[in-house]
Amino acid sequence: MGIGMKIVEITLKLPYEERGQILGRIYGKIRGRIQDVHLLPPSVTGLSEIKLRVLVSDVQELVKELKETIKNGKVSVRVISA
User: In sequence order, what DSSP letters do the residues of the chain get, joined into one string?
Assistant: First the structure.
């Protein structure tokens, strides 16, 4: 783990139909920094939940990039270790 790096858990709630396309774009941005991924089955309303554990240096920049990428979904971020 580098200097100033944080482990962050990102929870994404995405429409099931768009999940693969959005994950492909996200993967391109955070490739090599992903520590763990959990893909949960879609809910009755059709939202799929994805939990990512990522190593980042700038949490605000990551959230900004994710919100630009994800239009029809919800993003929540929790810092696990600083």
Answer: --TT-EEEEEEEEEEGGGHHHHHHHHHHHHTT-EEEEEEPPP-TTSEEEEEEEEEES-HHHHHHHHHHH-SSSEEEEEEEE-
CATH number at residue 47: 3.30.70.260
* pLDDT for position 2: 61
Mean pLDDT of the chain: 88
Predicted TM-score (pTM) of the model is: 0.84
Domain count for the chain: 1
- What is the extent of the structural domain holding 17? 6-81
